[in-house]
Amino acid sequence: MTDSIERPTIVEAKAITKRVETQEGELVILHPVDLVVAQGESLAITGASGSGKSTLLGILAGLDLPTSGDVIINQQIITHMDEEGRAKVRADYVGFIFQSFQLLPGLTALENVMLPLELRGDKQARSKAENFLTRVGLAQRFQHYPQQLSGGEQQRVAIARAFACEPKILFADEPTGNLDSHTGEKIIELLFSLNADQGATLILITHEERLAQRCQRRIQLAAGELVANENSATNKQD
């Protein structure tokens, strides 16, 4: 059953491109891409390696700037802002799950999850961090440092950190890529519970068909071009 209520747009890309200069000449990473994502929507970005998925995700999240075009988050044109302005928008609205984890090696798992909460003055930073670490199966790893954790455990710390901030938009780059199938299923359930319970918008890159099908919509990139934009097979049957 489709949602008949018109939801406001929370992320919009207008003809964004990305080109870089190389020794061989100009390399076009993204051809003009237009995209509108509604508040509370779940969107999978798919495509072969090298198709421009991570570049698109980084630009949508305000971590990178396009060569041309605009990105709008919650009616704010972030491509017109300086880095300080974009950082504030990210702090207010955005959560990230990176393939490279980006944990601070000098902090424990608990401290890594607490840090962004403490930076914004959340008085419940510790309890929220403990809750989400427990939910991703790391209740016994609070005081472990990243180097004492496996790659899959580090990924779960990064996921707990993103969830604990209760973002309005969660960007995820292969969120289950470093996890075994059982843990991956738990993380998928967490992703979509955040989407459902808190109305968070999910924008994720995945090679996993089961995860792409859980999303309401998917787009496909090929050689930097948007070649498909459709409802997922699962949601077509709703």
Protein architecture, described:
The chain is an alpha/beta fold. It has 8 helices and 10 strands. The chain has helices at about 55-60, 85-95, 110-120, 125-135, 150-165, 180-195, 210-215, 235, and strands at about 10-20, 25-40, 40-45, 70-75, 75, 95, 170-175, 200-205, 215-220, 225-230. The strands form 2 sheets. Strands 6-7-8-3-9-10 form a 6-stranded mixed β-sheet, sandwiched between helices. A 4-stranded antiparallel β-sheet has the order 2-1-4-5, covered by helices on one side. The longest helix is centred in the last third of the chain and has 17 residues, at about 180-195. It is globular. The relative contact order is 0.18. The mean pLDDT is about 90.
How much beta, percentage-wise? 25-35%
How many strands, which pairing sense, and closed or not: the largest β-sheet?
6 strands, mixed
Order of helices and strands: EEEHEEHEHHHEHEHEEH
Classification by helices and strands: alpha/beta
Strand order of the largest sheet: 6-7-8-3-9-10
Query: Helix amount, in percent?
Result: 25-40%
What's the rounded overall pLDDT mean?
A: 90
Distance between the termini: 5 Å
> Number of helix segments?
8
Number of strands: 10
Q: Show unreliable segments.
A: none
Radius of gyration: 18 Å
- What gross morphology would you assign? globular
